[in-house]
Design brief:
mainly alpha, 434 Repressor (Amino-terminal Domain), 7 helices, 0% strand, elongated, disordered N terminus
Length: 153
């Protein structure tokens, strides 16, 4: 199932790149040369057959004079809902002192921390709700039945 999502992401990335290239009036060959990638490789990216690295996307974005962040989102490297978190991811992707593999590892670890924190926050909310419910029951008056024995006699 994940493969289907990746395929669609890459396909939309390729369509977007082709659209940007055509609107910039660049041939496939010209863009490949400016981005420093091979013509066949760029063609495969546009057709959705290859998923480029963040570094290649950055080079293509520079050649097309568009935001690398847009390409990262379309490639599935960044999530459009990241908000503030996106700045951390962009810093990692933009760090020239790291290899592509190191960047991907850091992004994976960062994403796992965010997911863990979100799960813990959700669990905390659920336990808070349960505690509030328990407290509400504790505040209820306790009634007991008493039997009165009368001594008639």
């Amino acid at each position: 199932m994940a493969m289907g999502k990746v395929g669609k992401t890459v396909e939309s990335l390729g369509d977007y790149l082709k659209e940007q290239r055509v609107s910039s009036r660049l041939s496939l060959r010209q863009l490949a040369e400016q981005a420093g990638v091979s013509n066949p490789y760029l063609s495969q990216i546009e057709r959705g057959l290859r998923k480029p690295s963040a570094e290649v996307l950055q080079q293509i974005a520079k050649a097309l004079r568009i935001s690398a962040e847009q390409l990262y989102v379309r490639a599935g490297i960044l999530s459009p809902d990241d908000g503030v978190g996106g700045s951390v991811e962009l810093a990692i992707l933009g760090d020239t002192g790291l290899t592509e593999r190191q960047k991907q590892s850091l992004l994976d670890v960062y994403a796992s921390f965010l997911a863990l924190n979100a799960a813990e926050a959700e669990d905390s909310e659920e336990s808070t709700d349960a505690t509030e419910e328990e407290l509400a029951h504790e505040d209820a008056p306790i009634t007991t039945e008493t039997n009165t024995v009368t001594n008639e006699g």
